[in-house]
Design goal:
InterPro entries: NAD(P)-bd_dom_sf, SDR_fam, TR. It is found in: Plastid, Chloroplast. Keywords: Chloroplast, NADP, Oxidoreductase, Plastid. The protein is 40% helix and 15% strand. The chain is globular, with a radius of gyration of 16 Å. It is built from 4 helices and 5 strands. β4, α3 and β5 form a beta-alpha-beta unit. The chain has a 5-stranded parallel beta sheet with strand order 3-2-1-4-5, sandwiched between helices. The chain has 162 residues and is of the alpha/beta class.
């Protein structure tokens, strides 16, 4: 592997990562996901490939669960984190006129508030590592019209850096 792409010796947290992460660059990765079943299947697959990966279940829409997650990360990675990947994204598709207040709260707390709060919580760990980065995963839904996912588009569009 080209050394410029190596993450050897780095640590990373990937939210919503049980569906796939870039584990082949050498970093020690912790993945959180709301689905324990999917998480366990993915961890087993990645461990068989020799990846340095751990995981825990976390509903990132829950502020207390985000706080527990970051305590876990601090313990696993000795108080340091190099990379936070705010990857989680959920969408309940339906026509915009059919969304209710609970739909709005769910999408915003999961897709937007969680990324902001986890970025705040991870700051001391990123700073302690000496080389900290936050990656915000956006979506094409944030820049083009989606006829049945307007709240998702709103939340994920905030992750776009110009």
């Amino acid at each position: 592997m080209d050394k410029r792409w190596s993450l050897e010796g780095m640590t990373a947290l990937v939210t919503g990562g049980a569906s796939g992460i870039g584990t082949n660059f050498g970093a020690r990765i912790h993945v959180c996901d709301i689905s324990e079943t999917l998480l366990n299947q993915s961890l087993s697959e990645w461990e068989k490939k020799g990846f340095q990966v751990s995981g825990s279940t976390c509903d990132v829409s829950s502020r207390p669960e985000r706080e527990i997650l970051m305590q876990t990360i601090s313990g696993i990675f000795d108080g340091k984190l190099n990379i936070l990947v705010n990857n989680v994204g959920v969408v309940h598709t339906k026509p915009t006129t059919e969304y209710e207040a609970d739909d709005f709260s769910f999408h915003i707390s999961t897709n937007l508030e969680s990324a902001y709060h986890l970025s705040q919580l991870s700051h001391p760990l990123l700073k302690a590592s000496g080389i900290g980065s936050i990656v915000m995963i956006s979506s094409v839904g944030g820049v083009v019209s989606m006829c049945c996912g307007s709240i998702y588009s709103l939340a994920k569009g905030t992750h776009i850096n110009c």
